[in-house]
Amino acid sequence: MRAPFLSAYPLLLSALAGVHALPAARSDSGAITPLTSSQIDAFEPYSWYASTGYCNSSVTLAWDCGANCDANPRFKPVASGGDGDATQYWFVGYDPVLDAVIVSHQGTDATKLLPVLTDVDILLVELDSDLFPGISSEIKVEQGFQGAQEKVAMDVLTAVQTTINTYGTSHVTMVGHSLGAAISLLDAVYLPLHITDASFTYIGYGLPRVGNQEFANYVDASAVSVTHINNKEDPVPILPGMFLGYVHPSGEVHIEDSGEWAACPGQDNPSTQCIVGDVPEIWDGDASDHPGPYGGVEMVC
Ligand SMILES: *[C@@H]1O[C@H](CO)[C@@H](O)[C@H](O)[C@H]1NC(C)=O
């Protein structure tokens, strides 16, 4: 059953909130601190790479996609794929200024994502043990995100290994917006299981919740540096609901109405300066905040 989210969600929330225990709020949340302007500016090339994820695979491979490609003119594309329909576009290449492999996946519209993320039958499933060797079966992720990541996982891994070998770098940065942020977060678990001699950074934008408490804890305990940036009252990052067992990893940065970027420590920080406190329910959200702007970058090709 697919729940039309505006009508069914309040009922669903009130029906289930009473019977499902909410995950315990983490009490280790330290102070919320504003990012400096130089810290904010440092995200800009990654914001453009996330936005470029929306461009088709022909133009990203040629690095000829207009403003998005022109914003990172030094980029060396290595591989791209997807069809923008059944499979999200993706690209992999090398940024010589950042000295990093860049991995980016296409996202989707809030109007397409919200009905899926508020579906009462949304499913948490185990990761595939061939793709994710040794991963605990306690770790569960949303089925649709898992399918989208699995479809291209091996092509992305091959492209990352080729880029490392070609350019001699040992750093991999994974970016994405929306659905693309979710796919890239799964890459942030997947790629380090296969590439052991590199360091990894993840920067997501408008990230929905991808998995359960064990998933969030695994990401937090891993060596991957994780940042997920939420814009104002975007409802996507508060979905799927915590009452369904979904938890964000730490690393939230929340762009507030004032324009301040707040670093929100812990998982799902409940402060009103962070997305969970600012957007307590889906009807407090504004889907037009989903595409951005994130520091001046709108997520569109
Ligand atoms: C890719 O995008 C470019 C620029 O928008 C467009 O001209 C081209 O037709 C597209 N190609 C495919 C295969 O969709």
Gist?
The chain has 301 residues and is of the alpha/beta class. The chain is built from 10 helices and 11 strands. Helices cover 34% and strands 18% of the residues.
Q: Descriptors for this entry?
A:
Rossmann fold; two-stranded antiparallel sheet; Sec_MonoDiacylglyc_Lipase; disordered N terminus; alpha/beta; AB_hydrolase_fold; 34% helix; 9-stranded mixed beta sheet; Lipase; binds 2-acetamido-2-deoxy-beta-D-glucopyranose; 301 residues; 10 helices; signal
Write up this protein.
The protein is an alpha/beta fold and 301 residues long. It has one domain (9-23, 33-289): Alpha/Beta hydrolase fold, catalytic domain (Rossmann fold). It is 34% helix and 18% strand. It has 10 helices and 11 strands. The chain has helices spanning 5-17, 37-42, 44-52, 57-62, 67-71, 110-117, 143-167, 179-194, 213-221, 275-278, and strands at residues 33-34, 76-81, 90-95, 100-105, 124-126, 140-142, 171-177, 199-205, 225-231, 252-255, 261-264. A 9-stranded mixed β-sheet has the order 1-11-10-9-8-7-4-3-2, with helices on both faces. A two-stranded antiparallel sheet has the order 5-6. Helix 7 packs across helix 8. The longest helix is centred in the middle third of the chain and has 25 residues, at 143-167. The radius of gyration is 18 Å and the shape is globular. The relative contact order is 0.17. The model is unreliable at 1-27 (pLDDT under 50). 2-acetamido-2-deoxy-beta-D-glucopyranose (NAG) binds next to helix 4. 2-acetamido-2-deoxy-beta-D-glucopyranose (NAG) is lined by residues 56, 58-59. This is Lipase. One of its GO terms (biological process) is lipid metabolic process.
